[in-house]
Amino acid sequence: MTDFTVHTAEDAPQQSREILAGAQKQMGAIPGLLARLAASPQTLIGYNQLHQQFVNSSFDAEELTVVWQTINVEHECHYCVPAHTAIAHSMKVDPAVTEALRNNAPMPTQKLQALHDFTLSMVRKRGDVSEQEVEAFFAAGYGHQQILEVILGLSQKVISNYVNRVAKTPLDEMFQPYAWVV
């Protein structure tokens, strides 16, 4: 397989440069995922927009982490599980939540467990969840808006998980402390 080009803010296609420069400024380095996504400005821009919209959803930091990591673990993404562990750490998410997600252990609260279970069903059943699963999700305090926002988060994660798989993105040094083995 041909190796994916690892772009910089200087050599990326013009439409990708601003996003890469912003990541460099914010994180001190360009994550390998973004460096590879830059080959398709439309995909990089789409991924970035999905990320921003999901972060601005009704979910709090722990709930965002539950959705992201549930999908990452289910997709066995060697890159995204450590990356989102680092992100959760920076967002001050309770380490009990991140460790439970990384290790397929029960969530620390019933509400987070319901979000995890619903997200996992959405992934495994490709959206064809049962009425009982929807009712359990609603009983935990979520609604139609959150169903749609789980789908939004899933859309973002499909891009990153699949790109990391096909590109065999190596884990960045900044995420090494959070390395994860399937």
Structure description:
Helices cover 64% and strands 0% of the residues. It is mainly alpha-helical. The protein has a domain at 59-178: AhpD-like (Up-down Bundle). The mean pLDDT is 97.
What is the strand and helix layout of this fold?
Elements: H1 14-27, H2 32-37, H3 41-55, H4 61-74, H5 80-90, H6 95-102, H7 110-124, H8 131-139, H9 144-167
Helix pairs in contact: 1-3, 3-9, 4-5, 4-6, 4-7, 4-9, 7-8
**Range of helix content:** 55-70%
> How far is the first residue's CA from the last residue's CA?
23 Å
Net shape: globular
CATH superfamily of the domain at 59-178: AhpD-like
The CATH topology of the domain at 59-178 is: AhpD-like
Structural class: mainly alpha
List the uncertain runs: none
Query: What kind of sheet is the major sheet?
Result: none
Order of helices and strands: HHHHHHHHH
Strand content: under 5%
CATH class assignment of the domain at 59-178: Mainly Alpha
CATH architecture term of the domain at 59-178: Up-down Bundle
